[in-house]
Amino acid sequence: LAKTTQPISMDSYEGQEVNITCSHNNIATNDYITWYQQFPSQGPRFIIQGYKTKVTNEVASLFIPADRKSSTLSLPRVSLSDTAVYYCLVGASYNQGGKLIFGQGTELSVKP
Amino acid sequence: GAVVSQHPSRVICKSGTSVKIECRSLDFQATTMFWYRQFPKQSLMLMATSNEGSKATYEQGVEKDKFLINHASLTLSTLTVTSAHPEDSSFYICSATEQGNTEAFFGQGTRLTVV
Question: How many CB pairs under 8 A join A and B?
Fold first, then answer.
């Protein structure tokens, strides 16, 4: 299983762009990269998923280099409500036998 | 996105009793479900993976006789904490995925307190 490494914590201010990088050096060929957001006492919430290059949706962008050994979640113009823990997961859960293993996550604190 | 409903959201039970937590996929067929436990200020720890109609696969260190998982249908999986003790108090979260869908969907979690 591909292990992920992220910064434990990050601080930002409202209106700034936040980039969180995740390392996954032994990602497998059929693994996807998925980012989740978790607020206290809630289940994780899907943010974005990608396989390679760049993916953008209404809340974030995901940048994946050609070697796929890392990925960067980009949150444009964060607000106080973006204060949460962000997890980078690598895996192929859609295959029977696949697992979703959480790393330690990045605790993002957005200040006014 | 797809919805996974987890029930109850919080439960308090006495030591020695058993507690059942339900996880339902409301609008898709959950061929695989995952059960996690999360302690305060820690990440989610995978307890077991269950495929519909098969026995669950437990992670190392997780007692299968204590944490009974049943995935009898494509929309329902249950986790039963048997003979609960205060150290079992934690936040339990389920996740479900559908064959061919690359995204996994999470329930809202269950806060278990054993007194």
Answer: 66
